[in-house]
Amino acid sequence: MIDFDALLTALGKHEVAFIVVGGAAAIAHGSARLTQDLDIVYDRSPANLDRLVVALAEYKPYLRGVPAGLPFHWDRATLARGLNFTLVTSLGDIDLLGEIPGGGGYRDLLTEAIELHIFHSRCLCLSLDQLIRSKRAAGRPKDLDALAELEAIREERGHS
Amino acid sequence: MERSSYPSDPDPVVEAYKKDIDRTLIRENLKLTVEERFRKAMALARFADELKRAGREAQSRKS
Fold first, then answer.
1. pLDDT at residue A69 in the model
2. pLDDT number for residue B10
3. Is the pLDDT at A6 greater than 80, yes or no?
C-alpha cells in the first residue's frame, strides 16, 4: 500500500526538487479516485539526481513488474541514463517521470505548479489546469473518467 | 510548448463521462484540507487491500 506521508517526507527531508503529478495530484485537488502510486516529475540536474538517490535508497527501490533478480543499480548513473522509472519501494510504488505529455519537464511545470504544505513538509504539485491539460494531452482512453472528474472539480470550485 | 485552449473547447466525450461523476464525493473532499484528502486516500487504499485479501481468502475456501 502506498504511504504518501512517508514518501513525501523522505523526498522533502532530502530537498529533492520534484512536482507531484498524476493521481496523487488529483487527490490533492479533491479527487475521490483510488490511486496506487505516487507519480512525480523530478528535476534532472545531477545534484538533484544525487538527492533523489539518497532519499529513496533506504526504501529499496526496484523496477516494478520485471522478473526478480534482474540487476538494477539505484544510483545517479542509472537515473541519468533513463528518463522515466516505475519503481516499487518499501513505502509503496513510485513513478519517477522526466517529463509528462502536455506539460514538459520539471522546469516547464514550475511556472504554474502550486505549493502544498503537507505532512510537516512542503512540496510542489501540478495546478488543476496543468493536470487537466496533461490528461488531455496524454489522450489515453483510460484517463477519460479521471479527466471528467477533474473538470467537474474545476466546476465545483467555481473556476468555470 | 503548445497548450490546449482549455477551458474554451469542451470535449464532447469528456462531457459525456462527466454526467456520471458523483459530485457529492467531490464536494465532501473539497471541504477537507489537502492533508486530510491524502489520509482519506490512504485509508481507502488500506480498505481496498483488505477487500482483495478477503476476496482471495473466500475464493481459496471455495475451491
1. 87
2. 83
3. yes
- The cell for A154 is 474545476
pTM for the model: 0.91
Per-residue DSSP letter, B32: S
Q: Note the pLDDT of residue B7.
A: 53
User: Cα(B26)–Cα(B18) distance, rounded to whole angstroms?
Assistant: 12
What distance in Å separates residue B38's CA from the closest CA in chain A? 7
**Residue A96: closest CA among A45, A44, A156, A59:** A44
Whether the CB of A114 is below 8 Å from some CB of chain B: the reply is no
Can you spell out the DSSP letters for A31-76?
Answer: ------EEEEEE--SHHHHHHHHHHHHTT--EETTS-TT-----SH
Contact (CB, 8 A) for A143 and A135: yes
Closest-CA distance, B4 to chain A, in angstroms, reads 7
CB contact under 8 A, B42 and A2: yes
Of the candidates A141, A152, A133, the one whose C-alpha atom is nearest the C-alpha of residue A30 is A152
Which residues on B lie below 8 Å from A136 (Cβ)? Answer: 4, 6, 11
Cell 496533461 maps to which residue?
A134
